Amino acid sequence: MAAILSSLRNTVIAGFVLTLIPLVMYLNWGGTIDHPFGAFFIRWLHVGSGVMWIGLLWYFNFVQTPSMPKIPDDQKPAISKVISPAALFWFRWSAMSTIVFGIILAQMNGYLVDAYTLGAAEGFAVPKDIAIGIGMWLGTIMWFNVWFVIWPNQKIALGIVDAAADQKPKAAKLAGQFSRINTMLSIPMLFAMVSAQNIY
After folding, report:
1. Which among 139, 177, 140 has a CA at the least distance from the CA of 157?
2. Is the pLDDT of residue 117 over 90?
3. Which of 17, 110, 163, 196 is 20–30 Å from 69 (CA)?
4. Residue 161, Cβ neighbours under 10 Å: how many?
5. Closest CA to 53 of 96, 104, 84, 83
6. Count of CB atoms within 10 A of residue 29's CB?
7. Per-domain residue ranges of the chain
8. Residue 126 — φ and ψ, nearest 5°?
9. Backbone torsions φ then ψ of 6, nearest 5 degrees
10. How confident is the model at residue 200 (pLDDT cuts 50, 70, 90)?
11. Predicted confidence band at 56 (pLDDT cuts at 50, 70, 90)?
C-alpha cells in the first residue's frame, strides 16, 4: 500500500484500476459498450476535468490568494516559483479538457446547437436547453478567461515570460480580477449544469 500512496502516479493508476471493478460489474449485469455508454464515459471525463478545474479555481481564490499576505516575503518564492506554476498547468489544461469533453458530450447527445442558442430554434420554449445552454456559455466564458486573460497575465506576474518590472503588478491584478470573475461565474454555472440534469 505504501508503494501506491507514496507516489501520485501510482495513486492515480490505482484509482483507474479500481474503476475497472464497477465497469466489470456493469458488463457482467448485461451492460454493453454502446452509444449511451460512450456518452456516459465522456460525461465522466467532463465531470472529472471540471472537478479539477473548479477545485483549483477555488483553491486559488479561497486558499492561496487570501493566504499570500500572511506568508513571510522570504517564503513567497516557493509559492510563485514552484506551487503556482504547477497549479496553473493543471488549472488551464483541466479547463481545456472540461470544455472539449463538454462539447463532445453535447454533440453526442444531440443538444449542442440547441444549448448554445438557448433553444432559439424552439422559440426558447425548452427549459432544459436554456439551463444547459446558460451553463455551457458560462463555462465557455470561464475557459476563455483562463486561456486568454488569466494565464497570459500570470506568466507575466510570475516571471515565466520576460516583462518590465512595472508590468508584473498590473498583470497580477488583472489575473486576480478575472480569477474572481470566474469564481463568481462558477456558482451559477454549476447551478445551471446540475439543474439541467436533475430538475428539467
Report:
1. 177
2. yes
3. 163
4. 12
5. 96
6. 7
7. 1-31, 34-198
8. -110, 100
9. -85, -5
10. confident
11. very high
Grid coordinates of 116: 448554445
Alpha carbons 78 and 187: distance in angstroms, whole number: 30
Rounded to an integer, what distance in angstroms lies between the CA atom of residue 159 and that of residue 80?
A: 9
Residue 4 is placed in which grid cell? 501506491
CB neighbours of residue 187 within 10 Å? 11
Average the pLDDT over 79-84 and give the result. Answer: 93
Q: Which grid cell sits at 186? A: 462558477
In the numeric block, the cell 472529472 is attached to 48
Q: Per-residue pLDDT tens for 22-45? A: 999 999 999 999 999 999 999 999
Q: CA neighbours within 13 Å on the CB side: how many for 11?
A: 5
The answer to pTM > 0.85 is yes
Phi, psi torsion values for 76, nearest 5 degrees: -60, -35
Return d(Cα 24, Cα 13) in angstroms, integer: 17
The residue type at 159: G
| Digit-coded pLDDT (tens) for 143-170 | 999 999 999 999 999 999 999 989 999 9
| pLDDT band (50, 70, 90) for residue 121 | confident
